[in-house]
Amino acid sequence: MLPAVTGGRLTDRSLKAWLAQSSLAPLANDVDLLTRVANVLRLPLPQEGLAALRMWGQTGERPTVWVAAADPVYLEPRLDHLCLHDLSKPSGASVASAEFRDLIEHLQESLADDKRFGFIRMGACGYLRAESPIATANVPAHVVDRKVPSDYLPGGASASAYRNLVSEIEMSLHEHDVNQRRQAAGQPPVNSLWLWGGGLAPPRETRALPPLYANDPLLLGYWDSANARASLWPGGMSECLSDRGDAGFVAVTPERQDDPAFLEDCLRQLRQALRQKTIDRLTLLFRDGLRADMVRSQRLRFWRRYSPLLD
To answer: pTM, whole model, 2 decimals?
Structure first.
């Protein structure tokens, strides 16, 4: 998983020609990172408990209670619908750690007195713990960013508990000091939480997975649940290449590391490894929704020097 590549970010003509020789294709834009990686490796996905897997990746311990992710969002009212903005993603409007801590502590004090549920924060991630399961969305907030949230909400009679709880959360957050300060500074308020991935963590089940190098807690939790080798992002692609296993490796560059020069450096190292037969094939996933599948023989496609997908 590499940074965004389209829109003129890639200036090295040789790298653009190299990618044009691959099998380039756009990806669906409503899929989370774990699903993308699992589709490439043909891995099974749990039917529930993605939030528990993310917590597992953060703590290194399998959660034993029902949890859902509770991520900060701004629901922007528009003419005839709401538009969701993910405030946990790195951007100028993202919620600071101290702000999110104050909001989660406020929700815990104002809504969790009856012990039916509780709110906790781990770093930039929020969680809802509940005694009884409730229906939640299936995808994280970044998948719904700048989209209509109702298209991703749970439906049916079982969703009433979700709607009631979210209404209580929104009323409790409405006049909070954090939101007053954010609005005074021209930033969007945290006027709701996006509840998703609810369930119990899956049991441990050993699977043969390639080594993982990533900071993403959901991926780390999945690898831990499979008793597979996983490490934090080492800082560069060269470390992943030198420490790869016989089954290859999965490398996920940090989302905040979005410098075009960093992207080109990663691509040059991967191109060299492919040409020198250090690796046999590559699957590159870019954060702006492109996939490139590459093998050495594609260098013979010398007539392919350009792909409109890169623009």
So the answer is: 0.91
